[in-house]
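Whether sequence alone determines local backbone shape is best considered at the level of individual chains. The sequence in question and its structure tokens are set out directly beneath this paragraph.

===
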Amino acid sequence: MNVRDIEYFVAVADLGAFGRAADRCCVSQPTLSGQIRKLEDELGHPLFERSTRSVILTPFGMEVLEIARSVLDGCDEIIKRGRALDDPFSGDLSLGLFPTLCPWLLPRLAPLFSATYSAIDFTLVEEKTAVLQRMLAEHRLDGAILALPQETEDVVCLPLFSEPFLAAVHPSHPWSKRVSVHPSELAGQPLLLLEDGHCLRDQSLDLCARYGVGEHGTFRATSLETLRQMVRLGSGITLIPRLAVNESIDDGVRYIPFETTDARRDIGLCYRRSHPRARLFVDIARRIGDMCGIALPVDRCAAQK
């Protein structure tokens, strides 16, 4: 048994066909099929049920597949660690961002990454927080930009910036001319929030709970832009992170700052404690923090004042 044989096995399991698996592995189909036959002979049990139309994992093959993936992940990790020791500022790096941050932070990160880390090939993944946490733990991501705190001993979190929330209201709302509001004033307001699974929902509910405010109705939005559209239609008010506000355009919504300093979310760059490129993450975190510390948009209501 060797690593290449395991790679062939996983490729067939993923693609369900020997021909496509051979193409992925850059070998001929007879070579790949022969190596898998030898692997099955060595193990003493078939890994696949073969027919003229399909290739299906046997129960034994299903049991082995997860272990095989772990072996390949471990081999990739060994290679990454070796390369990281040579130069942590080169090679591949995968980073995750959650949906209520990614569309507004990514346009700022792209120029920074291309100008500062030209020797690094970045892969950026947008997923909900729980998915990013799982991908990080399973070594499918090198790091992730997440809301803090992250209570995991195996993960290091470097603070990036603190982003305030703004109350988003329709222009006809009584608050639309206000300079600021207090979170306690959210009580009795038709407050709209995201569906379960979004960390922004949890952060908003946490803020509301501190001031005795409850959620309004049963509507749950799937995205921040859906919430913003509901506000435009006069269906209620919501909380919008400051980065998601473009002060250069009038989007039919008025944004009012909160009077308290706890109406905010803290953002950090998280990576596994065992990751060999800690020096790179520290450098990235410093640069993002410097950038966002001076580049957050001004409040629209303050600009209109």
Summary: The first helix runs from residue 3 to 15. The chain has ten helices and eleven strands.
